[in-house]
Amino acid sequence: MILSGRPPRGRTLQALVIAVTLALALAPFLFPGVKPLNVAAKVCVYALLGASYDLLLGYAGMVSFAHVMFFGVGSYGVGLALYGLGPSWGAVALGLAAGLAVSTLLALAIGLFSLRVQAIFFTMVTLAVSYAFNVLASQLDWLTGGEDGRSFRVPEILQPGFRLIDREAFGVALGGRQVSYYLVLVGCVVVFLALLRIVNSPFGRVLEAIRENPFRAEALGYRIVFHRTLATCLAAAGATFAGALNALWLRYVGPDTALAGSIQIATLVVVVIGGMGTLYGAILGAALFVVAQNYLQTLLGAVSTAAGDAGLPLLPGLFHPDRWLLWLGLLFILAVYFAPAGLVGALSREDDTTP
Amino acid sequence: MSLDDFGAALPRPKPDFVPALTPLVVALVVAPFIGSASSFVTLTAAGLAMGMMIFTMASGLTLVFGMMDVLNFGHGAFISLGAYVATLVLLPLAHWAQVDSWPLDLALLALALAAAVVVCGLFGLIFERLVVVPVYGQHLKQILATIGGSIVAEQLLYALFGPDQIALAPPASFRGAFVLGDAAIEKYRVVATVVGLVVFVGLTLALNRTRIGLLIRAGVQDREMVEALGYRIDRLFVGVFMAGASLAGVGGVLWALYREQVHASMGGELLVLCFIVIIVGGLGSVGGCFISAILVGLIDNYAGFLAPKLAIVANILLMVVVLLWRPRGLYPVGGR
Amino acid sequence: MTARLALAGVHTHIGSYHILQGVDFDAPAGATTMLLGRNGAGKTTCLRTIMGLWRPSRGTIALGEATLSGLPASAIARAGVAYVPETMAVFADLTVRENLMLAAREGPLDERRLDWIFGFFPTLKRFWLSRAGSLSGGQKQMVSIARAIVEPRRLLLIDEPTKGLAPAIVGGLIDCLNEIKRLGATMVVVEQNFRVAREVGDFVRVMDNGRIVHAGPMAEFVADEALQARLIGLSLDSHQ
Predict the structure, then answer these.
(1) What does the alpha-carbon distance between residue B301 and residue A308 come to, in Å, rounded to a whole number?
(2) Is residue C15 part of a domain?
(3) Residue B59 phi, psi (nearest 5)
């Protein structure tokens, strides 16, 4: 595959990655309607969020809790710029640039500060900083709109009422939603390819060498703190892009959509279930996760009601649709134990003969 | 001449007192900004109480990490569990808690604490066996597994106890305040401080005066050598893990009565403070954990008074400053 | 209570590295066997594998009738094996007394045995209540050795005991090792200092590239300078 020294291995895997990518590329035509397009956009955003997280988790072997914070910085950057400056592309660019700057600086500070002493501090420090950022975002309501967040207008071409062409193409009216979707998709693809380029560069190899054996890598002359901090910054930038695109898609930014702890958990789940250290895994993981989130809840609701009708104790609570994270968490633990290479690992093993 | 007397004439190396004085320094520096002396006393008492509660929660975490390099993200769930256990014990006995009687109310508190110790210790054992052991020694997997464990545990609490906050009023005699001149010190804060101090003294004695404690201290420094001396460090670790979970539960009970409400998300939020405390104190050091918990409690209350929105930011700044001063925390444990 | 240590076809992997590549080795009962070899030959890995701190991937290790290979380090220690690592691994935040208390598994410290130990290392008595971490390197070495002999053990594994020690202390150490041997313990000692090796060793085993390349009595090895030069060459000369 393009830009990659290591394409996905195994026919099933290749077929699956291509199928998901094609489905996303043609989503407005394959699945017309509001909800499917929302699902598709969410898959794109989570794929990018997961892929940028994989740079840290899979390649550098670092667990960060701040990824959602960088996602939030991107969301708030674009959202607040559009809210304050009105709907213009200039505002989008300014918001994105500001978001990237803030994210990179924060990542740099976290990396330099926590990795300097003990790598284990990194995870704890990201958790603390990200928590503090959450508190700030909800408390500084003059800026962020607090818990309510901010709804804002996007440039005209992205607005739902906008008509790109008057007649329908393949039976679908092409309007601002479709344009927005393709903006999200193209943005995600471009940044994803950039990440692919990074992990397959010498820098990516050094990250893996450090993950495998930090002492050896240091003895070979690689500066561990520098490489890990750079990885943190790059991952943060990726998450910031994802956040910015998500805000444009939602035309809203608030704690629930930009900073919620569940987004961090979702990112972890996407990467681990998709397969750490592969980047492609994030695409599959995101597709599986978003679909599961949408349909698992319905399924759980049905089970819960059935259990409630049958008068069984406890089960209605365990299968309540709001408890979907419980089942995802169990799946996550099982994936960590039994399939650390995730879907990608399972599928590449299936027919390992393909080069 | 008994064995203890050898070398008694030799000057022993001076203990490092400077970090232990930092809470005092912080209090003195902040005092002029608070304005009134009575507010300062109230805030300081509140900070000490909070510090003692956080210490109780974090002490197990720092030992568990120090011994086995296990950073347990599921620790917060034990805090929440302890809080729910308090509701299970105290809500049915609410009519007793109405009676304004110190012995009765202290007995109720002791009952709730004992229940939390037992229940959380038991769940600690289950958590250790199911979540930590299968990935033992694999650092990344172990962090991920405990994160997964914390998600599942929190969701189970929601499923068992419902998604809503549960109100939990402290027993009658703990309500109200002691008045010292102009300053009011809430009675419950004094109770919480005393319980925290008892935990600290008990833990210190156990670590310094018992053979098991000696083994734990040795294990924190070099677990391999403890093994090579013939001790089953894995068994020791299970015990420490269970004790850590029990202590988290005790902290959860205290915190629930302090905030007068219980919610499954509280453990996760307190875990953030616990992490700051164990980093600042020095990973694996119980004494450091004690000092840094007081620092965090004081700063949280002072900052909450001076700039209400910046309390958590102030504690992150504390972490930054301490680590710039002492990169391994206030009381780094030898050998790590 | 003397017992012979025997390794047969022991392989040890550390991560992706294949360090021990089939070690066949015996240490006769009640004697001191010196394990010599260049840096990186696998001597420390060999001791750690016997101690159970690395699991052998193949082969058997036996002490007398008991099979050690496959047991966890704690069980190997309880089978009567004591280990003095190259890093000494004293518990820095514990006092000398506490370090020895932990090593005495069977019960309280035996004052007569302690006096015997203080006979070799009088400084330990002076620093009895000091933090082990505050001691000098040589003193830490004494703590580490004292820990290994605070109760009688069947097999002692000692890794470079004289490394970085002042000559005056080395004398006491040699006396100590010979005295322990007289009491019936089997010893395996890794030593770079050939003079020390000659004085305490009854047998010699030379390792290279994860295998034993020579085994024989020390007297024979001392007599054959060509053999010494071939097997251990410059690495020993530089330490004399």
Answers:
(1) 46
(2) yes
(3) -60, -40
User: Which runs of E-coded beta strand occur in chain C?
Assistant: 5-14, 17-27, 32-37, 58-63, 66-67, 81-84, 155-159, 186-190, 203-208, 211-217
Shortest CA distance to C82 belongs to which of C23, C154, C14, C183? C154
Inter-CA distances, A303 with A231, A290, A296, B162, Å: 43, 20, 10, 18
Mind listing the domains of chain B with CATH numbers? 35-325 (1.10.3470)
With CA atoms as reference, report the closest residue to B62 among B316, B251, B276: B276
Query: Can you give the residue range of the structural domain that contains A162?
Result: 11-350
Domain residue limits at C55: 1-80+156-165+185-240
Answer whether A308 touches B (CB < 8 Å): no
Chain B window 163-182: which residues touch A at a Cβ cutoff of 8 Å? 163
Q: In what order do the strands lie in the sheet with C155-159?
A: C81-84, C155-159, C186-190, C32-37, C203-208, C211-217
CA B146 – CA B132 distance, rounded (Å): 7
Query: Of C154, C158, C215, which is closest to residue C186 (Cα–Cα)?
Result: C154
At residue A303 the predicted structure's pLDDT band, cuts being 50, 70 and 90, is confident
Rounded to 10 deg, the angle between the A202-212 and A224-250 helix axes is: 110
Q: What residues pair up with C135 in beta bridges, in sequence order? A: none
Mean pLDDT of A278-302: 88
| Residue A355: inside a domain | no
* Cross-chain CB nearest to B6 (options C94, C102, C125): C125
pLDDT digits (tens, 9 = 90+) for B280-324: 999 989 999 999 999 999 999 999 999 888 888 999 999 999 988
Contacts A317 to B, Cβ<8 Å: 158-160, 162
Q: How is B10-48 classified by DSSP, letter by letter? A: SPPPPP--HHHHHHHHHHHHHHHHH--HHHHHHHHHHHH
- The answer to whether residue C105 neighbours chain B at the CB level (below 8 Å) is yes
Structural domains in chain C (count): 2
For position C236, what pLDDT does the model report?
47
Question: Which residue in this structure is represented by tokens 């700063």?
Answer: B299
Q: How confident is the model at residue C239 (pLDDT cuts 50, 70, 90)?
A: very low
Number of domains forming the structure of chain A: 1
Please indicate, yes or no, whether residues C97 and C72 belong to a single structural domain of this protein. no
The complex's ipTM works out to 0.91
Out of C52, C105, C130, closest to residue B7 by CB: C130
- Give percent of chain C above pLDDT 70: 96
In chain B, the residue whose alpha carbon lies closest to the alpha carbon of C80 is B230
